[in-house]
Design goal:
The structure holds two protein chains of two kinds.
Chain A (H helix, E strand, L loop, with lengths): L5 H17 L8 E12 L13 H7 L4 E13 L3 E5 L4 E10 L3 E10 L2 E11 L3 E5 L6 E10 L1
Antiparallel strand pairs in A: 1-2, 1-8, 3-4, 4-5, 5-6, 7-8
Chain B lengths: L1 H15 L4 H13 L1 H18 L11 H8 L21 H9 L2 H19 L12 E8 L3 E5 L5 E6 L3 H6 L1
Antiparallel strand pairs in B: 2-3
Helix pairs in contact in B: 1-2, 1-3, 2-3, 3-4
The chains are: A alpha+beta, B mainly alpha.
Chain lengths: ~150, ~170
């Protein structure tokens, strides 16, 4: 009867552990899902959109707006070097490009263009589920806030 | 019933002396309580004895009658009938796995492997070490001034564009 080799199977299990810890990327972050929201903040007496509960406390800590309303919201799946253009209002367009992905981070480049001219640009690293907000300037007691979150 | 099946599966290893001591204790305890398994073991032991003495050909599947006949000196000159089934069936992978994984040390190792796999799958998704930021701003280019706010736990970062004449006009 063939003997069952304990040592052999222990090595296999150890191999599985090492593989799971050190496998580069694990294939998870090859593409990321970016969720963007365009938020209108105002002093109007109104409600806060329940879909903003993840950032409402942080918004409240910085601003004294009473109302936060989502004007537009969507999710896109992007791979490395892919980009998406999001119209913010009549004049401004936000272009988001994924420049790199790692198991822990996603690097994005955000460009806001007005009438074809770049007025704002940033490069940021985001962890899974964390929100980057870009807002302002405020006019007539209202402000547009652009929120970006990544998932993978 | 389940214990009987298990005992019968372990009989060959028991007779070969390959059963682990803790399993031997369980095995023998069951034999003391179960006459059916005790009889089965005696039959198997007798089969082995007869084979060793060459009274019964190796390839013939034995019945209790065969053994009685052999013991009484009346060995039937039988030819193998149909398919020859080996008495000691080699254990399958599941049997091997069970006999391995239910021992304490491998069971613990196996459980640790499962935990490690689970952690490696879920750790990069959210648990931040103290002081590790959730967002890192690498650079900013803006025609206006900007102010950066970061929440206490670095879950949210806000870049606020400070108005100037040109931008106010635009919004």
């Amino acid at each position: 009867m063939p003997r069952f080799h304990t040592a052999k199977f222990t090595f296999v299990f150890l191999g599985v552990i090492l593989f799971s810890f050190f496998m580069p990327g694990k294939g998870k972050a090859a593409s990321v899902q970016l969720e963007w929201r365009i938020i209108l903040a105002s002093h109007r007496k109104g409600t806060v959109d329940p879909r903003l509960r993840d950032i409402y406390r942080d918004l409240g800590a910085v601003f004294n707006y009473n109302s936060y309303k989502i004007l537009d919201m969507n999710r896109v799946q992007l791979s490395k070097n892919q980009s998406v253009s999001i119209p913010l209002d009549r004049n401004r367009v936000c272009v988001i490009k994924v420049t790199n992905t790692t198991p822990k981070w996603v690097n994005v480049q955000i460009q806001i263009n007005r009438k074809g001219r770049s007025v704002f640009g940033t490069a940021a690293r985001l962890r899974n589920g964390r929100s980057l907000l870009i807002g302002g300037p405020s006019t007539r007691n209202k402000a547009l806030i652009f929120s970006l979150r990544s998932f993978w | 019933m389940r214990r009987c099946r298990k005992t019968q599966k372990e009989m060959e290893r028991y007779l070969d002396g390959e059963l682990l001591p803790e399993k031997v204790r369980v095995f023998e305890a069951h034999l003391r309580a179960c006459p059916k398994c005790r009889k089965e073991l005696e039959t198997k032991r007798e089969q082995r004895r007869l084979r060793i003495h060459g009274l019964i050909p190796e390839e013939v599947p034995l019945t209790t009658e065969d053994i009685i006949a052999a013991v009484c000196g009346d060995v039937p000159a039988r030819q193998p009938r149909g398919e020859v089934i080996p008495l000691a069936t080699p254990p399958g992978w599941w049997e091997k796995f069970r006999s391995f994984a239910f021992r304490p040390a491998p069971a613990i190792a196996f459980a640790l492997c499962i935990v490690a796999l689970g952690l490696s799958l879920f750790l990069p998704f959210g648990i931040l070490k103290n002081g590790e930021p959730g967002i890192v701003i690498e650079n900013i280019q803006s025609s206006s001034s900007v102010v950066i706010f970061q929440s206490e736990h670095a879950d949210t970062t806000l870049i606020w564009i400070v108005p100037n004449g040109e931008d106010q006009e635009a919004t």
